Amino acid sequence: MIFVCPGRPARPGQTSVFSEGEIPMYKLLVVDDEENIRRLVRKYAEFEGHAVDEAKDGMEAIAMCRDNRYDLLVVDIMMPELDGFSACREIRKTSDVPIILLSARGEEYDRINGFEIGVDDYVVKPFSPKELMLRIDAIMKRVSPSEDAEKEVLRARGVTADVSARKVFIDGEAVNMTPKEYDLLFYLMRNKNIALSREKIVTGVWGWDYYGDYRTLDTHIKLLRKSLGEYSKYIVTLRGVGYRFDENE
Asked: Cα–Cα distances in Å, from 67 out to 63, 239, 242?
């Protein structure tokens, strides 16, 4: 559900970017110890019509998430007091708010660690603020439910996916997954027994305007297979092509 909040108050000596009665599109929290990064993201986000709060470290971000409801968080990994990974892990205990991680490093370990925590996207510094805005828009389109969405349940032997409730059951037992694992499994099961290229999967799950690479998909496939346990065999790797969900494997 999209949270509608009043426009943020202006900073001392500054006129509010929202006119009286105007409602911002989304309320964002930008968490980074570098003030110039926070200002850059704020500038572009407010231009797009979003309300923006700032936090300079992980501890401050956790406190602000307790007192406020945000539509999306943009969180840097390397910060004093408490790093981004630890902050996201703590926030995930009580909230499924979408999270984009920022990092000066692009190592696979950082991406896997972030996705295991349950972040939705990963952006390497230096980044294009315009691209970041597109990623925010793409995520919010995916997580905002359609008002006329009908109940959809997908089934394979041993695996049941309740799409409308965003729940997955393995042999009747509920399994916790990250938000992106849910999206990926739903897409694969909807296209059961069809050979899907990496490009097609990325477009279907992340959106046509996704600016990442296929390594992100491969990382999420690894995590999804781990969550499926013995039924990980249903996700078949098609070398040089992509993947296929096949319960006959």
From this structure: 7, 48, 43
Our CA angle for 19, 21, 22, nearest 5°, is 60
Contact call for residues 224 and 185 (beta carbons, < 8 A): yes
Side by side, the strands of the sheet bearing 167-170 are: 153-156, 159-162, 167-170, 173-175
Give tens-digit pLDDT for 151-203: 788 999 999 999 888 889 999 899 988 888 999 999 999 999 999 999 999 88
Radius of gyration of the chain (CA): 19
Give residue limits of the domains in the chain.
27-143, 153-245
Architecture of domain 27-143: 3-Layer(aba) Sandwich (3.40)
pLDDT tens for 78-127 read 998 899 999 999 999 888 899 999 988 777 788 888 888 889 888 988 89
> What CATH architecture is 153-245?
Orthogonal Bundle (1.10)
Among the listed residues 81, 116, 89, 83, the one whose alpha carbon sits nearest the alpha carbon of residue 102 = 83
Q: What angle do CA 183, 189, 190 make, to 5 degrees?
A: 90
As a whole number of angstroms, the distance between CA 47 and CA 114 comes to 28
Half-sphere exposure of 131 (CA within 13 A, CB side): 13
Q: Rounded to the nearest 10 degrees, what angle do helices 108-117 and 214-228 cross at?
A: 50
Residue with tokens 């003030």, as numbered in its chain: 35
Exposed/middle/buried for residue 121 (C-beta within 10 Å: 0-12, 13-18, 19+): buried
Q: What sign for the dihedral angle of Cα 78, 99, 118, 231?
A: negative
